[in-house]
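tool=predict chain=A
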Amino acid sequence: MFKSRGDIVYKCTVRLLEDTEILECEFHPSYKGKYLLEHVCQQLNLTETDYFGLRYVDAGGQRHWLHMAKLILKQVKDASPILFSFRVKFYPPNPLLLKEDTTRFQIYLQLKRDLLHGRLYCTANEAAMLGALIIQIELGDYDPNIHVGNYVTEMRLLLRQTDAIEARIQELHREPVEGTPGGSGGVKGMSTQEAERTFLKIACQLDTYGVDPHPVKQDHRGNQLYLGINHGGILTFQGGRKTHHFKWNEVHKINFEGRMFIVHLNYPEKKHTVGFKCPTGAACRHVWCCAIEQMLFFTLPSSSDACVYSGGGLFSWGTKFKYVGRTEREILERDGLLAPRDGHEGSSATGGKRKASSVPATPSTPMTGDFGYSSLPRSTHSAPLEESGIIPSNEACNGGCLLSGPAVDIALACDHVRPEDPKPVMVSPEYNPRDSFEHSSTESGATTHTLHPHEEWSRAPPAPPPALQPPPRPFSLLRAFVPSFIFVWLSLALLTLLVFETDWPPLRSLKRKPELVSLRHHYYAPLKEYLKKKVIELF
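tool=predict ok
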């Protein structure tokens, strides 16, 4: 696939989900992101490519997803060497519905990374079971002649791998699986495929499944907040516990202004606006792009020319984001897991993108044939999950979130929100996680951030959020000056044409003034002749 067209060929390194595995690739300056992703997926024998992406870190330390429709070189022009990380971008709500074993294995590898780096937080019992399943997948059935001593210690499975939890993992590895003679709820006797499916079944029910935590501004108590985005919506975490969950069917619009990431919510009784202040403008735009892509992937019936706009105040430029690729519903329809909608054969029946007739001051509206942002349907994964019996319809996912990252001196600003009923997270004293937000050391090439402790998860429900203020609109001198400068010069040009090129009676006395006569003779007439000559030469 990657052949030189001419003399210019660029080389890049792609790190896979196993840190020890890399791919060396080449690309031409005219190649777009989709070609590199397709090449990596071909090397891994992956056909269900829509769930994956390539991530890179720019010179400022900000992470980005490689855009599939843009030139690779334009996106990483300042990077040297060019380094990408192959990662799961859209975590499927029910990974057991995936058709290919190779796809499920890559999802397993990603979740194994998430567990090790603290992004997939769970209770001590769940952590022990997940650890035992990893041991079963990688070492097979317990053999007393081979698995001697504390063999679990040699394998890094969890962020906080205590002696007590290692002993419990070994115990589960020795015990036969439930339902077999002498079975007591262990993993012995499971095939590799059965252990992998059980691992995925447990992991996908955790609150932090598919969450890549983004640090946002602290609240008035000085507590660090983290923003998570996955198939279920936008979540907030504080002290390792989920505090709010804004479901996609409640989200009306998403936009950003400067460093402020803003979510507009539609509840039956009232509309709400929630704002989160990010560390930098680049980080805020990254959060916005992640949220938009997740929302469109899991809610749109069709991806045909889906465009989203944000910004657009009187003195702001606005940002356009074009979604590329299939949506989850299209994938499920293609694979026969959902019946096609009436008049829909796997592609959009609408002819193309339209422009909104009315756009708010700071809109974020997908432009698809018949779908406005406020009319997006709920995620299509709910029915398959419940029907498959993997997540009971009357059972909510429990679990805390082990999130991490450098403490950022920032704060939350938003309108009134409706919190969910908090649920206590049961954590054993032996499993006391620490804050370790991984700014992907394997992606940036830098060492992992130093870990710093925080308080043990509390069982007391968090206090309700304070009354929050609407997010302030940032003022940019450059954005204010440039439109004003252009407006003034256009006005002067229009006035000059009106005076010198028309014979409007009210302006006759003005045109006879000596100053204007001199201006026309010495400047306006020569400039007009010069421009006329250039136009004639051009055509």
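The first strand starts at residue 10 and ends at 15. Residues 95-120+123-203 form a domain with the Acyl-CoA Binding Protein fold (CATH 1.20.80.10).
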